[in-house]
């Protein structure tokens, strides 16, 4: 979003970006609630301890950073003027920060930094899934798309 040059419709595109962020935050919270109610199948018995720990840490990091990126974006929205509270023209999302140009810049910088951290975590996750599927040939990837335990 930072590479959009200054032009008349820049606010529109940033507003859509914010709306998508609000949706992602809501879906992530719902997913965490779902996981709390419906735990994931156990990893295959032959999975080493370090891989089990790495899986739990990476999943926790993914959820944490998704929420962090969305919350920093939301904080940025409330700190800038005008804010991005208009949700697809349907209603205004309450803002939890007050207009403050310096704070808006700080939130935006952190939002961008953690967005790149999130991209790195996603890349590691995809590489690990591909490794499990094509190199180890275990059932780890299959359990992501079915209820099948390995």
Automatic annotation (TrEMBL):
<feature type="transmembrane region" description="Helical">
    <location>
        <begin position="113"/>
        <end position="134"/>
    </location>
</feature>
<dbReference type="GO" id="GO:0009055">
    <property type="term" value="F:electron transfer activity"/>
</dbReference>
<keyword id="KW-0249">Electron transport</keyword>
<keyword id="KW-1003">Cell membrane</keyword>
<feature type="domain" description="Cytochrome b561 bacterial/Ni-hydrogenase">
    <location>
        <begin position="10"/>
        <end position="146"/>
    </location>
</feature>
<dbReference type="Pfam" id="PF01292">
    <property type="entry name" value="Ni_hydr_CYTB"/>
</dbReference>
<feature type="transmembrane region" description="Helical">
    <location>
        <begin position="53"/>
        <end position="75"/>
    </location>
</feature>
<keyword id="KW-1133">Transmembrane helix</keyword>
<dbReference type="GO" id="GO:0022904">
    <property type="term" value="P:respiratory electron transport chain"/>
</dbReference>
<keyword id="KW-0408">Iron</keyword>
<comment type="similarity">
    <text>Belongs to the cytochrome b561 family.</text>
</comment>
<keyword id="KW-0472">Membrane</keyword>
<keyword id="KW-0812">Transmembrane</keyword>
<protein>
    <submittedName>
        <fullName>Cytochrome b</fullName>
    </submittedName>
</protein>
<dbReference type="GO" id="GO:0020037">
    <property type="term" value="F:heme binding"/>
</dbReference>
<keyword id="KW-0349">Heme</keyword>
<keyword id="KW-0479">Metal-binding</keyword>
<dbReference type="InterPro" id="IPR016174">
    <property type="entry name" value="Di-haem_cyt_TM"/>
</dbReference>
<dbReference type="InterPro" id="IPR052168">
    <property type="entry name" value="Cytochrome_b561_oxidase"/>
</dbReference>
<dbReference type="InterPro" id="IPR011577">
    <property type="entry name" value="Cyt_b561_bac/Ni-Hgenase"/>
</dbReference>
<keyword id="KW-0813">Transport</keyword>
<feature type="transmembrane region" description="Helical">
    <location>
        <begin position="12"/>
        <end position="33"/>
    </location>
</feature>
<dbReference type="GO" id="GO:0046872">
    <property type="term" value="F:metal ion binding"/>
</dbReference>
<dbReference type="GO" id="GO:0005886">
    <property type="term" value="C:plasma membrane"/>
</dbReference>
């Amino acid at each position: 979003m930072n590479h959009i040059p200054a032009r008349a419709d820049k606010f529109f595109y940033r507003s859509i970006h914010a709306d998508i962020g609000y949706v992602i935050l809501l879906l992530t919270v719902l997913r965490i609630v779902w996981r709390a109610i419906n735990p994931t199948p156990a990893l295959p018995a032959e999975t080493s301890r370090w891989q089990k720990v790495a899986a739990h840490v990476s999943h926790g990091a993914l959820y944490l950073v998704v929420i962090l990126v969305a919350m920093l974006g939301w904080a940025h929205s409330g700190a800038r003027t005008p804010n991005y509270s208009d949700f697809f023209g349907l209603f205004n999302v309450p803002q939890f920060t007050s207009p403050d140009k310096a704070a808006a810049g700080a939130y935006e910088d952190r939002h961008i930094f953690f967005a790149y951290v999130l991209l790195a975590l996603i890349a590691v996750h995809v590489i690990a899934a591909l490794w499990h599927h094509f190199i180890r040939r275990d059932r780890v990837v299959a359990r992501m798309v079915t209820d099948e335990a390995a």
